[in-house]
Specification:
Blueprint lengths: L7 H8 L19 H4 L7 H14 L3 H9 L10 E4 L2 E4 H17 L4 E5 L5 H9 L5 E6 L1 H14 L2 H4 L2 E5 L9 E7 L7 H14 E9 L36 H14 L5 E8 L6 E8 L5
C-alpha cells in the first residue's frame, strides 16, 4: 500500500506549535504559528534575511560597483558576515561604501583633497583611496575615541603609501581646516546637536568646493524595527539631534519620498547648489546628495 504518512517533524509540530492554532487578527504577525506555514520568522532567521539582503544587492549591482568593490583590498578584516559572488566575499559595510564611491564617481576623477567629518571606522576613506589614485590628501575630523579607532583600522588595511595620505584632526581643532575639494559627511550629522552641524556647514561653505551628504531622512519609532523603548530614559534625547527630525515610517516608500525635499534643503550649505541626489541602497531611508559651491553668486 502506498504510504502518504506524516513525517516525524510534522507530527512534532502538530503536537506543539499548531496544537492550539487559531486564525486571529494577528495570526500572521511575527513569531506566530503561521510563520511555519507561509514565511520564515524574521526573529529566528535574522542572519538568513541579512545575508539574503546582501546577496540580492550585489546580484543587481552594476559592473562599476563590482569593480569598485574588487579594488578595496583587505575589506574583510574582522571577519564580518559575508556572501560570496565570483569568488569574492562581500560584506555590508563595503557594499555600502562601494555604492557611495559609485555615486561620487561623477566627480572623484577631478578631486585631489577630501575632508570627511565623522569617519567612524574609516571604511569610506579606505574605499576611496583604493579607487582614486589622484587623491593626494584625505583629512578625517572626529572625536578622539573614534580617531583612535580609525587610525588603528586604516593602518591595518592600507599600505604605507595610501595611509600616509591621511591626516587625523580632532573635532576641537576643526577650525584649523583649510580648503578641500570635497567634504563628506555620512551618518554622523544625525547624531550631532544642530548648532554643531551648522558650524560644520559654515566650515564647508567657507572651505569647500563640493559637499556629499548621506544621512537619514528622519527619525523613526523603535517599534517599526521590532524594538521597545528603553526601560530607563537615557541622559540624551536622540530626537533632538540632526537636522531632519520628523518621525517617518522608514519602510513606507511614500513617506520616504515626501521627506526628500526637506532633506535636500536642510543639508545644503550656504552658497552651494544641488547637482545630484539619489536614494541609497540597501537602506532607502538614508539619502545621498551632492552639492557644489555656486560661484555664480560671487
Amino acid at each position: 500500500m502506498t504510504n502518504f504518512g506524516t513525517s516525524k517533524l510534522w507530527e512534532h509540530l502538530a503536537e506543539t506549535i499548531f496544537k492550539d492554532a487559531l486564525l486571529t487578527e494577528n495570526f500572521r504577525s511575527t513569531q506566530n504559528f503561521s510563520n511555519r506555514l507561509s514565511m520564515w520568522d524574521p526573529h529566528a532567521n535574522s542572519i538568513r534575511y541579512y545575508k539574503t539582503l546582501l546577496l540580492e544587492n550585489i546580484l543587481n549591482a552594476s559592473d562599476l560597483f563590482h569593480d569598485i568593490y574588487y579594488n578595496i583590498k583587505n575589506n574583510n578584516l574582522g571577519s564580518p558576515l559575508h556572501v560570496t559572488y565570483n569568488n569574492i566575499n562581500y560584506n555590508l559595510e563595503y557594499i555600502i561604501s562601494s555604492y557611495e564611491v559609485e555615486f561620487l564617481s561623477q566627480i572623484l576623477g577631478g578631486i585631489h583633497t577630501i575632508c570627511e567629518i565623522g569617519a567612524g571606522l574609516g571604511r569610506t576613506c579606505h574605499a576611496i583611496l583604493n579607487n582614486s589614485p589622484n587623491i593626494n590628501e584625505y583629512t578625517i575630523i572626529d572625536i578622539p575615541v573614534c580617531l583612535k579607532l580609525s587610525k588603528e583600522y586604516l593602518k591595518s588595511v592600507l599600505d604605507l603609501e595610501l595611509y600616509s595620505k591621511i591626516k587625523f584632526v580632532t573635532n576641537k581643532k576643526a577650525n584649523n581646516i583649510k580648503y578641500h575639494d570635497l567634504f563628506i559627511n555620512i551618518d554622523s550629522f544625525a547624531e550631532m546637536d544642530p548648532f554643531v552641524i551648522k558650524n560644520y556647514m559654515n566650515l564647508i561653505s567657507k572651505n569647500g568646493k563640493y559637499f556629499y551628504s548621506k544621512n537619514p531622512l528622519g527619525k523613526y519609532n523603535l517599534s517599526s524595527i521590532g524594538k521597545q523603548k528603553p526601560a530607563v530614559n537615557p541622559s540624551y534625547d536622540i530626537m533632538k539631534f540632526g537636522l531632519c527630525k520628523d518621525i517617518i515610517d522608514i519602510f513606507n516608500y511614500d513617506e520616504i519620498t515626501k521627506s526628500i525635499p526637506n532633506y535636500l534643503k536642510q543639508y545644503c550649505p550656504t552658497e552651494f547648489k544641488l547637482i545630484s541626489h539619489k536614494v541609497t541602497t540597501p537602506f532607502h531611508y538614508y539619502y545621498q546628495a551632492l552639492y557644489i559651491k555656486n560661484l555664480s553668486q560671487k
